[in-house]
Amino acid sequence: MSYELQAAEEAKMWKQKLLRKASFWERSSKKAQNKMNGMIPEKVHHTVTESIKKMVEATLLGSNITTFPKNVEDLTFEQRENLVRKSIGMYKKTAAIEGASTGAGGLLLGLADFPLFLSIKMKFLFEVANHYGYSTKEYEERLFLLYVFQLAFSSDTHKEYTLTIIENWETKKLEIKDLDWRIFQQEYRDYIDLVKLMQILPGIGAVVGGVANYHLVQQLGECAMNSYRLRIF
């Protein structure tokens, strides 16, 4: 079996796993989070949405400036994916160090983890796009990365919708002009709230922060690789 066929098969299996039915615990947790979100005043939702939107946009701009494109035109698909794997390994370590450092600092540094970790993940996605030969100077490619991010950190009820967009990006990018930032921030916060809450607890914050960030980047890396595989194949 060629490497491309093997990668396509792995992407197919990953997709099936991604779309598996949520467990009772996962469904119950999502219902509780939805109920809690419904109790929060609309003004607060708007403020949080705008804050995260500006934070992500600033991170995207910074990532574009600090990303130095590598020429991958002459590389095989397997060689490109080996570059992606190296990036996953490097960014997992970087994220773990950042999470452990902010987790050890208590509440204030724990709060600082949100924008710092977000910046690491966005920088990582820019690098992955470059390895696959896509230019992040194009608005459509940056928008695609946000959907990959959303797919990695969203509830099961939203994953199927996001996956459809990713698989059909060449046509969807002509229709979609912007992201639904309200859904983006709410899905992301709901996904990582419990972990980040534990990260600011005295004594265990450093361990939780380091381990959580390590695994969250691993999860994002798998999602990015398989999203590009589905798009390319």
Describe this protein's structure.
Helix 1 crosses helix 10 (205-232), helix 5 (106-131) packs parallel to helix 10 and helix 6 packs across helix 10 (205-232). The protein has helices at residues 3-18, 24-39, 42-66, 77-104, 106-131, 139-152, 156-167, 169-172, 181-199, 205-232. The chain has 233 residues and is an all-alpha fold. Helices cover 81% and strands 0% of the residues. The protein is globular and about 55 Å long. It has one domain.
In short:
By secondary structure, this protein is mostly helical.
The total strand number stands at: 0
Question: Could you estimate the helical fraction of the residues in percent?
Answer: over 70%
Shape, principal axes of CA atoms: globular
Beta strand %: under 5%
What is the CA-atom radius of gyration, in angstroms? 18 Å
**Uncertain regions spanning at least 5 consecutive residues:** none
Give the biggest sheet: none
Average pLDDT across residues? 81
